[in-house]
Amino acid sequence: MNACETETVRMRPGAPDYAEWIERAGKMLRDGGLVAFPTETVYGLAANAERSDVLARLREVKGRPEGKPFSFIVCERSEVARRVGSVPPSASALMDAFWPGPLTLVLRGDDSGTVGFRMPDEQIALDLIRAAGVRLVAPSANSSGGPEPQTARDVARDLAGRIELILDGGRTRMGQPSTVVLLENDTCRVLRAGAIEEDRIREAM
Prior knowledge:
The protein is an alpha/beta fold. It has seven helices and ten strands.
């Protein structure tokens, strides 16, 4: 794996240089870079999903096994329909209840495979998605199996020298990952426990 210089930038929405750094980070993603950023749960690692070489690099950086897919991050619900076609009523109900927020929805795609989506409840994350202008995936910003990163320092300790940029938005509010839910034929299965309890998910459905 080729080493790179990792830059860390303190980010505060409304700060004089905030918009400039968001645009720079968006361009970096379009060009194939890897950018760590805060969400309300843990720090994510964004990558351009439209480039197979970038996805291969992301998998290498994280040490993620082949065959384990990445979830998309979105800033608009319409992106889900563009990817999977018809959105089932159960998914719409969960979006109404928990998006933006700590819920990853896994749905059946047009090609009969499953696709995960999340809309984070964090301004820096949403602005980054818009600035990138390409489809993004974003697993947690850590080596697979390692502790979930709650601060930019956590990310740097693990991934410095392997990614281009860390957007430091301070400590994450929740400190635990999103709940991952698989929806098929209007049935719900929790694939990973997280910030939203299973009882609340079933109540919303």
